[in-house]
Amino acid sequence: VPAGEYLCTWHKSPSFGWVYKLQAVPQRSHILIHPATWAGDSRIGFRCQLAGCIALGERRGRLPGPLAVLASCSAVDRFAAQLARRPFKLLIKDFEHD
Fold it and tell me: What is the phi/psi pair of residue 13, to 5°?
């Protein structure tokens, strides 16, 4: 997702049920905040459940293989409940390193 400010709205996804959806992402569609365990680089053989979307988790750890996002379903549920499923603005910044 390119750097910018995005309105996120409560949305019913055919694949994930009720989740947040980022609105008006340039050159992208259906960018969601949804549960996922695997976010590896599929080009080199790792499992991946994301195609540009954002996964939430309570912690990271190892399942057999690479690092994984753990307790993702409960993290998404708690996030939505905390926001009372209201729209919010998400600011994404470019990462700068030295």
Answer: -90, 135
Q: Could you tell me how many residues make up the chain? A: 98
Count CA atoms closer than 13 A to 52's CA, side-chain side.
Answer: 12
Backbone angles phi, psi at 60, to 5 degrees: -120, 155
Contact criterion met (CB below 8 Å) for 29 and 11: no
pLDDT digits (tens, 9 = 90+) for 40-95: 788 888 888 888 899 999 998 888 777 889 999 999 999 999 999 999 999 999 98
Q: What is the value of pTM for the model shown? A: 0.86
- Provide the token pair at 93: 């910044």
